[in-house]
Amino acid sequence: FVFDADERSCVVRDASAGELAVIEYGIDGYIGTARASSVAPELVSLRVNAPRADGGGGAKKIAYPLDAQTLRVDRLRGDDGDVFSDDGDDSDRVPLGSRTNAQNRVAGVGVTVTHASRVDWLELNARATHLLFRDKKRRLFLVHLGSSSTKTSLLEHVTYAQWVPGADVIVAQANSQHLCVWYSLDAPEKVSHVSVVGDVESIERADGVTNVTLVDETRDGTKKSSVVTLDESLVAFNTLLEEGALNAAAEALEPSFKNHGGVTAETEPMWRELLEKAVAKDDAATARRCAAALGDVARADFLDDGLLDQGEDFLFVDQDKDKENDSESSTNDSDSLLQKSKLAMLDRRFGDAESLLFSRGRVAAAVSMWRCLGRLDNASEVARRAGRDEHAEQLGREHLEWLKSTGQEETAGALLEARGDLFGAIRLFLKGGVPGRAAAVVIRDAKNATNAKDVTKPSVSLDSRLVEEIVDQLKRASLHSKAGLLFDALGRVDEALRFYVTGDAFAEAVDLTKRSYTRSGGPGLGGSTPVEELLEKWGDFLMRKGGKANAKEASHRYVEAGHVAKAFDAALEAGEAEDATRILDERRETKETKSAKIPSDLASLYLRLAKHHERVGSFDAAELCYLTAGEPLSAVEMHARNDRWDAARRVAEKSGDESAVAETYARRGKALENRLLFSDAETAYLAANKYDLAIAMYEKHRLFDHQLRLIGQRHGADALKTARSKLATSLAEEGNLKEAEKRFAENGDWKLAVKMYRDAGAWEEAVRAARAGGGGAASKQVAYAWARSLDDDAGAALLKKFGLLESGVENACVCGDFEHALFLAKHGGFKAGAIKEVYLKRALFLEDEGKYAEAEKAFIEADKPKEAIDMFVHAEDWASAARVAETHAPALLPETLCANADYLLKKLNANDEKPVERQTLTETERSTLTDAERLFIRAKRPDRAIDAYRDRNAWDDVLRVAKDYAPRRLVELENERRDAVSSGTKGGSSVGETNKNKTSSTESSARESRFRKLLEKATNLEASGDYSSAVDAYLEIDRKAFGASPSAEEKAKMTRAWRAAVKLAGERVPGKTRAVVSETAYRIRKLGDAAAADDLLAVHGVSPAEARERYVPNVGGAGASGAVAISKPPISAATGMDDAASSEAGALRRAAHACRSGDGATGASTLASLPKGPPVDAAHFGVYEEIACLALAFALEDENAFENAENDAFAAVVNTESYLAKLVDSMRATPNVHADALRAFRDLREAARLTRVSFSASNPEKKDVDGLRFVAAKASTSLLRLASRLPADAVFFRAGVSCRAAGDSNSAFVFLNRYLDIADSIDDAADASFDGMSPSPRASSGKTLKNLDNDDFANTDVPKPARLFLPSAHAVDERRREEARDWVLTISMDRAVTQQLPERKCQKCQGSTFAGALTCHRCGAESEACAVTGWPVPAGERVDAGGGRGANRADWNAWANAVGTDPWDPAKTRS
């Protein structure tokens, strides 16, 4: 709770619940509570004043907001107008927080003020009579809390507003040059303007002086104070008025009156208010003073002493008697009485003035007052009450003459009538044009004369001439009924009846007729014909007047007259159907009409009544009337018309005519059909069991859905299907293809719909119908057929329009139409690689067909000479295979020739099933071996020829070939021959040698099989994308596969497999490259080729010391990274230091070599391994920057980086950030020496940090952490600021995918749309050459993207397209590109996506800019970057991230919960 207190009361505020409770010191319990929308001090105002000096209670009110635009002022208990009292009752002490607003207003009804804008300040004045408030548009308003609750606008653009303490004076300021002061609240339009300099700081009122303090701030920052003193007399005026000190209030206004020579705009309403108060309090002196100040001379003179006596000298008034009566009291009392009477007259309280004067015996003064007002009747009454009868009579005559002279004959006549002068009164009434009053006098006189016993007194009713004159004027005034009353009173019946009827006074006429016939002894009541005639005329008159009430009354009169038909019509006209029924029923039950058959006239009335009941919806009553009238079929028709089919059937069944029922339904259905009410018509037809009519109706009006529905209901599913088919065929013949398609589709015959469209040439509709019925595959087939129906160019354009070029080419290939496929590919803008794929498929097709020559050409066009060679090898056409290899793939010629030789040797071994021991070769063997030798020598593989002769023990040929082509092996082979001879193998002629050769051949086949399996395993892993496991599989091809003593050929195979592992690691698994290179070099050295091992290490920048580490293949499953043994290399004995760490120059050479090789990951790892970081040498800055760009590009293009941060891409990013951090720290010592380079390295370090944050936040293992997806999206978006240093397509793709994962479809659409624009630009600029491998996207083409539209990024700090470089190749594979393209196309149709970037308001210029921009694009103001995401840190959301950096609270919490480390320290990041 918060307490706000003053000397008399306090407010208890409950900010959470919006509760207010008011406590007045000295009173037990709350004096009021309220529930406010805000309990802010500036929106709550309390006034609890002390009791007034006159004994009244002080004002006790509270003002507060009900909502942002509604204010409430409640009276508290004990307010000066409160009906409650503090009687000790504690029933209202409801605990704070449990009261309603109805309970809050404990002191009566308050005032509610509604406003159009939100209120931001309010305050009650000291007396709590006015409320002052300001709204958010800085407009000042004043509300008078009286009965009218008027609201007045005072000032606009208000910067300061306040009540003067203890006074009803308002001080406000709208600018620093003028001060506005309102001294009078009753005249808010009268405002005083005071010229000032500065802004109001405070208002103080003490010792009768009110000072306003202002402060003005100069340009140099100094502040100057000034004081303005308000007119204290005007300020104190309202206080004096409230205290009842009227004379003091007048004295307060006098200085202003004297200074200005009169009243001013500010003081005039004050003088008038004071005048009103003085008059109300009978203060004549103050009132006269106010009137004089206001220039009201007449009022001032009237209030002057003695003036009243000057007007008392009038006729027949005894002044002496007045003076004698007046002398009885003191002179002072008399003067006071006169002044009070004058004030009462001014206040128009003439009755009070008369009472005052009469009580003091001043009768003459009272009479004089009424005479002046022209009220002689009141003057006469005053004189009569005073006992002055003569004077009263005189005044009465004077009053009568005055009435006559002023044309008030009616009033004069009433005066004479009251005096008993009836003749005179009648004359005046007739003269005044009111013959009705004259007739009333005669009527009363006639009645009095009848009852009076004194017949000698003249009666005006006996004066026939006077009566005729009255009647004549009544006729001219059309007061016939009044004339009838006159004649009735005079007993003249005939004339009375005539005037009654003429004046439509039928009630009086009927009454008079009944009375006259009773007195004359006529037939009596009810049976008199004249009475019935009058009743009928009475009813006719009422019907002419119109209206339901008159019609109802007329029906009663007609019934009394015996006219049933007219009574029935009148009852219906009045809407009284029950009365009409009662009238007919009573008529029917009379003896005259009671028979088996109802009379026709009565039946017609029943039919009319039935129709009335039908119109008003009373169908049961209508049915009864129809049946009573003998018309049951009419009742059936009524029920049918109103869709009451069950009731209609019930009535028809009672009538016993089923055919009539069916016919009724059928006729009703036809009528409804003509009115196009088909649903109701169907119901009628089905009620009549006329299904065929309903089906025909729907067919006629082409409402086929309803037609088919009824057919299915009536005849079953087979009939429905047949009807659909016929209908579809008919619609197709009519040309209504859309409707026909719908019917075909309902029957499941979408192929017929497609055929219909094809026959009609509506191919687009055919494609759509095929897609709807058969899916995408069917629509593609139709599109292909459409394209084939056109010429080649048009067909290609069509497929391109539908985006089916690739599918069209594939379909043509499947169909064997390769010419068409090639045409589509070439004219469809396919890349060279795609066209070559078509040639390849054609070649494979021709190969299967056995057309090798044509297949060869196709293979060559596809740039696949190896496949052509394999084809000829498979066909055993070795000459063609060698020709193709020699012509198109010279590198494959040796392999081809060796394969040919192997084939010959294999064939020779197959034919030599039972070799015998012999010393020489047979002719067949010699010829075959010679051919094989020639092929091996041509392939530059003499070792293979040597092995072939050695396997046949042809040592002479072995030595011959070695001498000619491998002289280095001659000694080795001679020793081997000598060993063979010494062991008893004389020329290899023994049977044991032959068996040994067979065993050796079997072991060779087994080793070859193991090799093939391992090679196939590695190839399959590489094809599946598991490159790390593929590297391990290549390295498994070692001595274990070929044995401890592999042949030269087997060593070559092992070497090729190991080099394949090196190549694959360099291209796909950079983190393994160094370890794989070291392992491969070690193995090659073990095979005896040290020179090759050294070359391999030099090429890959691996030092011999590093090469001592052995590669440990993965044992944790496919896809995991390999590891290097963690043992350190030996320490140099001479230096005592690590050889690798001691050679900084060597590390720089290896980094430079990696840079030239495009291996950024290896280069970053090398530079990160330097303990002190890269040296600050301008000669190496280019290498540092290039390696950073290559490493980040490699990381961004890694597909797995989006789902897993623990991979080689992440390691490359961490290494890059690590060496750049060391480099930047070293360069900070001399920031001005290499300023440009330092700026570039800082940008790249920030890029590496943001990439690392994005990868870490994207880790699926942390997907459940709240807000982490948004961290990844923001970090990827911030990376766009550095897009000029990175592959633009990779950066925008990463940002779009991250935003999409975070659920921000709007931003994702914008970023991915920009990525697709860049991808299209890459395709347009791509080289036409095709090398069969995916080019690296790390290199730039040197071109920019200046032609791209930048409207979506105009309000961002993303580099403009002219600063973005066009990559030479895609960083994203085709699958992900197409996925992004499909998503963008899909989301572009979603209206819920606004397709624009989020915005924030700049704190400096208040303009809108991109929410992630650190620099406002309007004013250039820079914002602090979040240490986690790089986005601006909003005001009020900053948290300290350490190192003087700030971070957004939500992003910092998400990062800390998921990672828990400093986002600027890569070494501590827990990925």
Structural description of this entry:
- The protein contains 64 helices and 27 strands.
- Mean pLDDT is 75; it is low at 82-108, 306-321, 323-331, 521-528, 985-999, 1114-1142 and 1327-1339.
- The protein is 57% helix and 9% strand.
- It has a four-stranded antiparallel beta sheet.
- The radius of gyration is 60 Å and the shape is flat.
- Helix 33 runs antiparallel to helix 34 (750-759) and helix 42 (878-888) packs antiparallel against helix 43.
- The longest helix has 34 residues, at 991-1024.
- Strand 10 (130-135) and strand 11 (140-144) form a beta hairpin.
- The protein is of the alpha+beta class.
* Dominant shape: flat
Tell me the β content: 5-15%
How far apart lie the N and C ends?
49 Å
Output the radius of gyration. 60 Å
The counted number of beta strands is 27
Strands of the biggest beta sheet: in what spatial order?
1-2-3-4
Number of helices: 64
Brief descriptors of the model:
single chain; 27 strands; 9% strand; four-stranded antiparallel β-sheet; 1471 residues; alpha+beta; 57% helix
Helix/strand layout:
Layout: E1 2-5, E2 9-14, E3 19-24, E4 32-35, E5 45-48, E6 60-67, E7 70-75, H1 101-104, E8 111-114, E9 119-124, E10 130-135, E11 140-144, E12 151-155, E13 160-163, E14 170-173, E15 178-182, E16 192-195, E17 199-206, E18 209-217, E19 223-229, H2 232-243, H3 246-260, H4 268-280, H5 284-293, H6 297-302, H7 319-326, H8 331-346, H9 350-359, H10 363-372, H11 376-385, H12 389-405, H13 409-419, H14 422-431, H15 435-451, H16 464-476, H17 480-490, H18 493-502, H19 506-520, H20 529-545, H21 548-561, H22 564-573, H23 577-588, H24 600-616, H25 619-628, H26 632-641, H27 645-655, H28 658-674, H29 678-687, H30 691-700, H31 704-715, H32 717-734, H33 737-746, H34 750-759, H35 763-789, H36 792-801, H37 805-814, H38 818-827, H39 832-849, H40 852-861, H41 865-874, H42 878-888, H43 893-911, H44 923-938, H45 942-951, H46 955-965, H47 970-982, H48 991-1024, H49 1027-1035, H50 1039-1042, H51 1048-1068, H52 1070-1086, H53 1090-1099, E20 1111-1112, E21 1123-1124, H54 1139-1142, H55 1144-1157, H56 1160-1168, H57 1181-1196, H58 1208-1227, H59 1235-1257, ...
Antiparallel strand pairs: 1-2, 2-3, 3-4, 5-6, 6-7, 7-8, 9-10, 10-11, 11-12, 13-14, 14-15, 15-16, 17-18, 18-19, 20-21, 22-23, 24-25, 26-27
